[in-house]
Amino acid sequence: MPSPAKPSLVQEILTGTFTAEQLTAGTSMVVSSLIRIGVIVLISFLVMRVVSRLIDRLFKSREDEQRVLIRDNRRLMTLRTVIKSFVRYMVYFVGGIMVLGELGVNTSGLLAGAGIAGVALGFGAQNLVRDVLTGFFILFEDQFAVGDYVSISDVSGVVEDIGLRVTKVRDFAGQLYVVPNGSINLVTNFRGRSMRAMFDVQVPYSTDVELAIEVLQDAFDRHKESMPDIMEGPTVLGVQDLGDSGIALRIWATAQPMQQWSLERQLKLLVKKTLDDNGISISYPHRRVIIDGQHNCADSGAVGMTSRSDRAS
Q: Count of CB atoms within 10 A of residue 11's CB?
């Protein structure tokens, strides 16, 4: 016959069959467990404080470098918060498992169940995990910042917000695009230390090319100080192409980030005024049309002409 199971200390206390020695031993065990739990909680708290201080000191010691690599303060705060949260959850998890072990809970079963749940969650939330991981590396590697003009997943615009899961981009039409970070495969960032402004202007073949280059460069040199967005140039590089209707002169300059389009418009206006002041016209395609045996000149945009025979000469 198997011997009956020995009643537990709690059962003996409830039934009043316990002895003073048992009560003393049980009290000692409870007190010892509470002390160990208190030590675990205290160590977890100290670890969190120390790691938090180290993270703050790491970011503070590299503040000047981070200002160069990470231009947006919110990005720096996001990185610091993400790292702190990751460490905090790890400390909470390890400390919780140790506390449960002190309370007599079989933690091996919990760890096995947590592992299975983690695998199931990983399969069920693959896109979410991919978005978060990609967002973390976008922030860490400083691929782009808030305020940058970028092209992402066939969407071009100014970055308004960068999160761990999504990036928000607003185009010049005012439309807001929310792009999951996991779908970002290629990023084109149009923001740099200096951005190029370059375009061609065509003059007729009858024009003195050297004179045209000289008057344009002189105008650029005189008006350069009135264009604060210019970093280098503007310069007339020379003859770029000999086209069907004229000679193409290339204009080049560099501008402050995000100001290249504004600078290009200002330079084009200055080129037009300068050429007009010096009697130099901008070439455009011409077409000669023969109507009833008479030669008439009209540009390619002319309309309302009825022709019996249309022959280009």
A: 11
